[in-house]
Amino acid sequence: MFTSFSTALTGLAASEVGVDVVGNNLANLNTTGYKASTASFYSLVAESLGLGSGGSVGLGTGKPRVITDFTQGAIQSTSGALDAAIQGDGFFVVRDSAGTLNYTRAGNFQVDANGNLITGTGEKVEGWTMTGGVLNTNGAISDITIPSGTLRAPVPTTNMSLNLNLDASATVGQANATFSTPIQVVDSLGTTHVLTVSFTKTDANTWDYAVTIPGEDVTAGTAGTPFPIDSAAGTLTFDSNGVLSDPPPPPPADNGLVPITITGLVDGASDMDINWSLYAPDLSSRVTQYAQATALASNSQDGLTAAQLTHVALSDGGQIIAQFSNGQQVTVAQVAIASIRNPDSLVAVGDNNFQIGPNTAAPAIGLPDTAGRGKVLGGALESSTVDIAREFTNLILMQRGYEANAKVISATDQLTQTTINLKQ
């Protein structure tokens, strides 16, 4: 009789824990990256009543074990530039104020006053940050630092190319036998200069070329008058198929390259040494001569002006991309992902974070989408895995279980009173 009383008390305590778990899940219905928990019940060791073989009764239920369900949550697109979601297994690695590594699925990141990438609750996000212009993802992880207000140094032009056709039917001495096209290059100070490349047909399959720079850009020039660059003048010869035959394609290395040397720039920049490439990497001719109108298809050069940082965003793959005002995009950091073989052994510590428990396997930290780690999606967040319908069903079950055990206690109390009255 007294056993039934204590047994029913364990049922009350277990149901209470179950209600607490349901309440916590419902409270985190809209929490980013939250993983729903379930209460796992188990029976206590049975007590023999000496009624012969098989005559035994249980002692109730033990305190339920709370288990976190690490199933994938729904991925929702957001407008946050630094938002990230993991699709698949793994956790973001974060460091709290005490220096302890935590693990989370919540990727609603932001930047603090010191430029550190942090979670919504202030933990620093771990990964790799570019140092000295190099992003080394083979080293140890550390706090990710986002550049702010960075002025990127200019990159002087060292290579240029023109993709164009010269009209094979042009007549020497006529207007269609000459053609000029501009191309903008950058010096070591970030100043731009417009070079003009001119072509003049001098014979069948033969065109002379020359390159000039505005006279006001060089100390030896005259304002308003193009200044010829002596190193960049010569002749192009085409074969009967309309492709370049002289200069020939590489090798040797200097063939197919027209050196353009610009000295005495008035802005004080270093002398410029530019290689004009007449051939593509596959050795096909960039300049052709077919019986079509002379026209430029495209041009390119590798110089960049000085630029201000305008935008930072987290892209797919966990890369943090910095965009500059000159259009250049640079990967400045990489978010790390930890793979844990038995995530259900992690210990919840609040703020969407987990820490390693006594039975947790050692986390394997590396790049996203490698060695079984999930993909990182930029501009997205993982929703809570709480199923409101299931939680309300569980709540009803826990409520009914509590009421039933309370009824057992009430009945046991009545039986106890009856037994006492018999003795009187």
Care to describe what's here?
This protein has helices spanning about 1-25, 390-424, and strands at about 35-40, 45-50, 55, 65-70, 75, 85, 90-95, 100-105, 110, 115-120, 125-130, 140-145, 150, 160-165, 180-185, 190-205, 205-215, 225-240, 245, 255-260, 270-275, 285-290, 295-300, 305-315, 320-325, 330-335, 335-340, 345-350, 355, 365, 375-380, 380. By secondary structure, it is mainly beta. It folds into 3 domains: about 1-70 and about 385-424, no CATH class; about 80-150 and about 310-375, no CATH class; about 160-300, Sandwich (Tick-borne Encephalitis virus Glycoprotein, domain 1). The strands form 8 sheets. Strands 7, 8, 11, 12, 13, 24, 25, 26, 27, 28, 29 and 30 form a 12-stranded antiparallel sheet that branches. Strands 14, 20, 21, 22 and 23 form a 5-stranded mixed sheet that branches. The two termini are about 20 Å apart. About 30% of the residues are buried. Residues about 45-55 have low confidence and may be disordered.
Features of the shown structure:
mainly beta, Tick-borne Encephalitis virus Glycoprotein, domain 1, 32 strands, 3 domains, 12-stranded antiparallel β-sheet, about 425 residues
What is the CATH superfamily classification of the largest domain?
Answer: Flagellar hook protein FlgE
Second-tier CATH architecture of the largest domain: Sandwich
CATH topology of the largest domain: Tick-borne Encephalitis virus Glycoprotein, domain 1
Alpha-beta content class:
mainly beta
Would you state the CATH class of the largest domain?
Mainly Beta
Biggest sheet layout: 12 strands, antiparallel
What is the residue-mean pLDDT, rounded to a whole number? 91
Q: Which descriptor suits the 3D outline?
A: rod-shaped
Strand-residue fraction?
A: 35-45%
Query: What is the domain total for the residues?
Result: 3
Number of helices: 2
Rounded Rg: 37 Å
Low-confidence stretches: 47-53
How many strand segments?
A: 32
Cα distance spanning the termini = 19 Å
Indicate the percent of residues in helices.
Answer: 10-25%
